Amino acid sequence: MNAFLHAFDVALGVLKAAFFWAALVAAVLCAIEWGVRTRRINPFSRFAQTIRRLMSPVMTPVERMVVRAGGSPASAAWWTLVALVVGGIVVLSLLGLVRAELGGVAAAVHSGPRGIVRLLLGWTFDAFYIAIIVRVISSWFQINQFGPFVRWSFVVTEPLLRPLRKFLVFGVIDFSPIGAWLLLSWVVQPIVMKIV
What we know:
Elements: H1 2-37, H2 46-68, H3 76-111, H4 113-140, H5 151-168, E1 169-170, E2 173-174, H6 176-195
Antiparallel strand pairs: 1-2
Helix pairs in contact: 1-2, 1-3, 2-3, 3-4, 4-5, 4-6, 5-6
């Protein structure tokens, strides 16, 4: 397992470097594309036409979305860059999360049954935290609580939030999710992890 984790770390390091250099190249290409679209660079030059031909497969769908949203087609280059950078950050973050979980599993298996129980308890608390976050975000955007992607969070968190709501609702503001988060992370999880 250690050899696999080491290979994963090396691959992740190479991928981070590749994303960094790809983001720099994309930034240069998007800046040139923006310059061509705003006529700061002659759009009829061979250089500009080559860049437009190179960037067209990536830019066309982004430009459609920007125009549909009421934006200027000239800003499509910057939105493309933002999408590429955010996409790279999300991919690298997810791979980092996978690496951390694989390391946790390896350490738990190495520690024996007690380590596995601690790992499972940690995952249970993480599921509660994710459910609280999903519930809060769904309330901000007024997403239907009975929808398939949100309902599970209400089912998981309601037994904990219902009693807290008696003390943590002030006017129209419900602080019970924050109270539940603090109760779980500062009181319950440390006690449970010490016992196990």
